[in-house]
Structures are given as structure tokens and as C-alpha cells.
Design goal:
7-stranded mixed sheet; binds zinc ion
């Protein structure tokens, strides 16, 4: 039986790859949609196993200990959804506006939410790593030395969101494949998650520069605006919605080399 990578107890819980509340809010408890990862799998409930990691954490960590982190994530995505114009104009995230007076601790909880997601991705990847740095952070350490986030706003997703919502309900949730690079004893692992137009890149590495480490007393974080000119016009007319969405998520990061360069910039 595997051990929970957060606390070391028996792993008996399956963390969602997409947050259950995102799926429920989006599709209701029962739905028809497709989960795309190499091949499409039809799913009809947010409880479907294809949406979950195997058992790599325990129930206590997944449900109790990380509840405030899940809540911080819900507040974050709801805020970003309601404040598209403001975010676009400012090009930053103001954590006081998102969370109010307790923003510093809530910012930390938001990062802990993404740390749990990233840890589950890393531990189930081809190259599982020692995750002590983020497990300590999740269960109470004030900071992390190896884990950073980088936020982006993808304007094109707002455009298609507006377009498709004239007739139906369109919601975009995306979970990029874990990328790894470096040498066997010094690997960097990274990925991103999108909730509609907000993309959160995560990087886990021993090589995070001092000045790129997260400061939880910093109220404002940069939000990189990915504008419409970023995309290759020809590819914007892809024949299928899947191909189009993939292009909108990856844009110029369409090769492994470019993705590595992107992640490397985030930590150096
Ligand atoms: Zn645990």
C-alpha cells in the first residue's frame, strides 16, 4: 500500500486532477463531456476515476488538512471569472482585493492548493521526486524553496467563452501534461492548469533563483497578459474545437524546447 506523500500515512484517497467544485459548478453532478489526454474518454460524472489521481494521499490530507487551501482556490477562480476586465487592465493580481484583510495567509493557502496538485502530478509521473519541501509547506511551513507559480490571462479564451455562451454553456478547464527536464538527480518538473482564461503555471525545482521565490507578504503578483496577437493566425482556424483549444492553450509553446524555455524563465 502506497504512503501519503504529504504525511506518510496510508494513502487511501484519490485527489481530483480537476477540482471537484470546478466540475460541479460547471457541469452539475451528472454530465456528458470528454476528457482529452491522447485519446478522448467519455465521462458523465465528476466522480469518474479518469478525473482522479491514483491513491497517493490520505483522506485526512485530502479532505481535512487541505480544506482551507481548496477554499482559497475557489475564491481565487471565482474572483478571476468575475473580474476579467479589471485583470486585463491592471495586468496583475492584487491579493488584498481577492481575499480581503487576511490576504497574506490566503495567498499562502492558494499556493498550497497548487502545491498539492503539483505534488500528485509529480509523484505519479515517470520521475517521482522527493517532495518534502512542498509537503512541509502544505502542512504548515511558512514558505517553500522549490515551488513557484506564474499567472497568465489568456484573452482568446474569453473571446471563445463569450462567443459560445450566446447559445450554450461553455467552460474551459485545462490540465497540461507534466514536463520534466534536467539531470536525474536534479530534475525540474512543471506544468500548468487553466480555469477559463486564468492559467497558473507551476514549477518544482532545486534551481529556483532567490529573487523568484515567493514572498507571501507581497500583495501584488504579475499577471502576464497573453493577447490575441500571440497566436499564429492560420492555426486559429483549426478544423475542430479540440485542435483550436489545444492551440489556444499552447500557443507558441508548441515544442518541448519552447516549454522548457518558458518554465526556465519562471525560475531564473
Ligand atoms: Zn496524508
Amino acid at each position: 500500500m502506497a504512503k501519503c506523500w504529504i504525511c506518510g500515512n496510508k494513502a487511501d484517497s484519490k485527489e481530483h486532477k480537476f477540482k471537484a467544485s470546478d466540475l460541479k459548478r460547471t457541469y452539475g453532478k451528472k454530465f456528458d463531456c470528454y476528457y482529452i489526454q491522447e485519446s478522448a474518454t467519455q465521462i458523465n460524472s465528476y466522480k469518474d476515476n479518469v478525473l482522479k489521481f491514483p491513491e497517493v494521499i490520505c483522506i485526512d490530507c485530502n479532505v481535512k488538512k487541505t480544506r482551507p487551501h481548496d477554499d482559497a482556490y475557489d475564491i481565487f477562480v471565482t474572483y478571476c471569472f468575475k473580474n476579467y476586465e479589471l485583470l486585463l487592465e491592471n495586468g496583475n493580481l492584487d491579493f488584498q482585493k481577492i481575499y480581503g484583510t487576511n490576504w497574506s495567509n490566503e495567498k499562502r493557502n492558494l499556493y498550497r492548493y497548487f502545491a498539492k496538485h503539483a505534488g500528485c502530478k509529480i509523484i505519479t509521473s515517470e520521475y517521482p521526486q522527493d517532495l518534502t519541501d512542498i509537503s512541509d509547506f502544505i502542512i504548515g511551513a511558512d514558505n517553500t524553496q522549490k515551488f513557484v507559480l506564474y499567472f497568465e490571462l489568456k484573452m482568446i479564451i474569453n473571446v471563445i467563452h463569450t462567443f459560445y455562451n450566446r447559445e450554450g454553456k461553455f467552460v474551459h478547464l485545462f490540465n497540461a501534461q507534466t514536463q520534466y527536464y534536467g539531470y536525474y538527480d536534479n530534475l525540474t518538473l512543471a506544468g500548468w492548469l487553466s480555469n477559463n482564461w486564468i492559467t497558473t503555471n507551476w514549477v518544482y525545482s532545486k534551481n529556483v533563483n532567490q529573487n523568484k521565490k515567493t514572498d507571501f507578504n507581497k500583495q501584488i503578483e504579475k499577471l502576464n497578459i497573453v493577447n490575441l496577437d500571440y497566436y499564429d493566425k492560420d492555426l486559429m482556424e483549426s478544423e475542430t474545437l479540440d485542435a483550436m483549444i489545444t492551440h489556444f492553450e499552447f500557443g507558441k509553446l508548441n515544442t518541448m524546447e519552447k516549454r522548457i524555455e518558458h518554465y526556465q524563465k519562471i525560475i531564473t
